[in-house]
Specification:
Elements (H helix, E strand, L loop, with lengths): L1 H23 L1 E4 L8 E6 L4 E5 L7 E3 L11 E5 L2 E7 L3 E10 L4 E11 L9 E6 L4 E10 L4 E4 L3 E4 L12 H26 L1
Antiparallel strand pairs: 1-2, 2-3, 3-4, 5-6, 6-7, 7-8, 8-9, 9-10, 10-11, 10-12
Length: 198
Amino acid sequence: MKKHTETLFLLIALIFISFSAIAQNELKMDIDFDGVTDTIFIDTEKSTIVCLLSSKNFKRVESNPIEILNPQSRITDARNGFYFENEWMTAGYSNQFRYDKKLKRIRLIGMSRYEFGNAANDGSGESSVNLLTGDYLGNWNYYDNWKEELIKIPEIKTKMHFNKIYLENFEEEVYFDFATKCSKLYYRYREIVRNKRK
């Protein structure tokens, strides 16, 4: 019984440390280009991305709640902006934000995602979309059960358009919408490759 109790306390401590690491994960940089340092962080209690901009007198500007927020979630530096990254064991995604000088708002300008697929790596790969140009790139694989080999689908280059998305209306549905569109492209191009290999 004592051993189980010690194990439970150790597990709770590790979870607490993981969430504390998220809470301390913040980025300090001038993202609104006024020469004053701003702060970007993840609010773990509200599950939101928060920006404190000097140009807005450090008033909170934040996303909608992100329901599936993982201990590995983080904010990292990007050229003229920042990334919000959310990862699981076998998949993850990244969102790039940049301050729009004209509108004085933080805009989502790019998304990327990856998946390792199942044990045979079926459905593994990565993709990205530039929300400013609509350019989509996808590099995906599928497993051929008959030949028992992993097949690379030729790089998918196409257009994928989204409405303008700003930090205040960013939520998980934005990513899930991207993932759904990626999935449709994957299945379409997988069938093209399969038909050519028959």
